[in-house]
Design brief:
Distance between the termini of chain A: 21 Å
Number of strands of chain B: 0
Number of helices of chain B: 11
Strand content of chain A: under 5%
Radius of gyration of chain B: 19 Å
Helix content of chain B: over 70%
CATH class of chain A: Mainly Alpha
Helix content of chain A: over 70%
Oligomer: heterodimer
Radius of gyration of chain A: 19 Å
Structural class of chain B: mainly alpha
Shape of chain A: globular
CATH architecture of chain A: Orthogonal Bundle
Shape of chain B: globular
Order of helices and strands of chain A: HHHHHHHEEHHHHHHHH
Amino acid sequence: MQALKPGKHAANLAVWLVLLAMPYWMPLIGGYTELASRVVVLGLAAMALNFLLGYTGVLSFGHAAYFGLGAYGVGLTLRYLVPSTVVAMLVGIVVATVAAALIGPLIARLRGVYFAMVTIAFGQVFYFIAFRWNTVTGGDDGLTGWRRLPLDFGFATLNIAGNDKAFYYFALAVFAVCVGAMALLLRSPFGRTLLAIRENERRARFLGIPVDRHIWMSWVISCFFVAVAGTLYALINNFVDPRALRWDQSGNFVIMAVLGGMRSFWGPLIGAAIFVVLQDFVSSETENWMSFIGLFFVLVVLFFPRGILGMIRARRST
Amino acid sequence: MTQLVILSLFNGLIIGAFYALMALGLSLIMNLSGVINFAHGGFLAIGGYLAYTLMPTIGFWGALLLAPVLTAAIGLVVERLLIRRLYGRDPLYSLLLTFGLAFMIEDGTRYIWGAQSVPYQVPGFLTSPLSSDFFFLTGYRVFMVLLVAVAVAGLFIVLNYTRLGMRIRAGTLDLDTVSVLGVNVRFLRNINFGLGIYLAGLAGVLAAGMLGLQPTIGTNLIMPSFVAIIVGGLGSLPGTLLGGLLIGVASGITTVFFPSASEAVMYVMMGLVLLVRPRGLLGEEGRF
């Protein structure tokens, strides 16, 4: 909806410029290129979650599962199957999306608190599989023994393996494609239908919209994009461990979306940027970073429930 | 073999009783206030650690009595200061807030009592096996199941036969009407939250004796409680009890044949229940 308003072009342009230049300004505020990649990747995850949370109005607290499945898909493929970054990403995305599509019908009928609780619980299945299946996944220690490999386009290769900046721009390109696709989907009649369901589900149902099927579709789309983010996340670290798909990771995605503003397209990205930088800073300063992150959650809920962009917008309109 | 199956059945029953105790507290809070208390596991840990700290001074029985009460008191304060502000708002916010609380409590217990697991002393007469044929049947385990049974019975008596319990049940059905009839709903929700946290604290003391104490004890036990509620049916306390016992027994039996799937089996059960009966075994139609 945002993209349709006139005058938003400048804002969009500004976002892209900031993102394009991030590896160059990040060091100036004490960051590093990998941190920039993490902002973009977790931003994509939060925006993907927000497709469901903010635009369909369905509260998922289990997105880490599909994020982590994407990540494990990459790691396992590169380690055991095919030495190709692109194939590994495709495997990760397909596995996670299929899992989401299969679980979808079980949860599409549920609403509100119940939906949240069931998504959390289902997320744990994959956590336990990753945690317990030691011989294949490396269990609690995580999956090691693989690295991202340079991209080979036939006519040229992009060395994302050795060059952090090259990887950043690769991640940004994937991000751009995904974000563009999500914006298009939200502008389409399908996206409008999702908004209608969010605003008034009963009325949407009376209009003859198959609500459960739309929620299922929105869920699968959202999980698809979060899986893309998961594959990139694995490639950043050259490592996956079960924490990538545990429930606290799901909570992180939700807080990113809320902090930035669930009702705005770019909000979750801003929330992710703040969260990632803050987490990086706090965990390097103190051992008790969990307390600070927890306190951060509490403060956001109490004082910024509409998120940063939501607050700016509210202030403008008054 | 028979002995092994009985052993695992009994083990499952103990674990299940445990999940049920925790899930009942969660359910109480969710039914009346619509809040999923993610920090429930944290309160369980607080209960256990408080008992651990109190025991040298007031002994095992004193700690067993006092620690859950103190935990409940902390719960009352937390409800008053934080949770209360979120009633009537999108459940998203209470989820996030209690999520943050869970982080803070886990880290706080680690800070105060250390990351290492600490042993919890149980009186000698409770640790000896009851009979040599069933060596696994230690007194403590039987004691635990009995205590859970007493607590659950107590909870159902309070809910069914006291004025407070009637109000809680009525509020679960229609809070507005209860409020209009002159009941102080803020107070009711406060007490109800404390009651739920009391059960978490009690579960914490019992868990400490069985599993030992470590800061992650709460987070490890909260997920099965969610599953218990979903299997049993949201909004139904007997359902929650049934759900807890069922998944406990299921995971206990699976431990014998295929140990690494002992957690997964709970989630498989949950998937099956949702497929066949989305509202849960004893859940009411259309409540959620």
